[in-house]
Description:
This protein is α/β, with parallel strands linked by helices. Helix content is 41%, strand content 19%. It has 8 helices and 9 strands.
Amino acid sequence: MTASPTTPPPANLPTIARRGLMLVLSSPSGAGKSTIARALLERDAYIAMSVSCTTRAPRPGEVDGKDYHFVTVETFQQMVEAGQFLEHARVFDNFYGTPRGPVEDALASGRDVLFDIDWQGTQQLEQNARTDLVTVFILPPSVEELERRLHTRAQDSAEVVAKRMAKAGDEMSHWPEYDYTLLNTEVDRSIASVQSILAAERLKRGRQVGMADFVNRLRGQ
């Protein structure tokens, strides 16, 4: 049986040192990026979620340090001034940011990092770490379906849902800025598509930092 690309290889087989990548999933709220992200984390041993800082209040069931680092506005601004974020943005009256240190450590050790962020954060990541970045924009099948999903998940008030719908058009206009665009009509198919993107991006020559040494050993040099 051939090992899955998301399963660690047997210990007796050679491995090539690889630099990790940053996989960004963006979409308007309700288009499915969080569902796809959760599936990747469950199925892939090599990728971990980037834990962002936010100034918003925790939602029911969210755990500080696991879902987000929940901080005050004052603390967040201090982190911005100290250059501790790879990206940060204001979204729906709250601030979000990606701490720099944990991501850089993961990439150097060959671990991939998954980001669930908007187009503003993605633009900042492109400025700070473009060679490590793989970006995917997820579109809903229709505006009506997007609104239905927002109401169905029952996480936000009707007022917040209306704000998210009002902003969705502007968010979707940024799809050409991404490496890949995915129409999320069926979630299992969408998850498989993102897994395929991830598998291919991991094999890019520039990320396989140990390949030159491995080939030299094969050639006896």
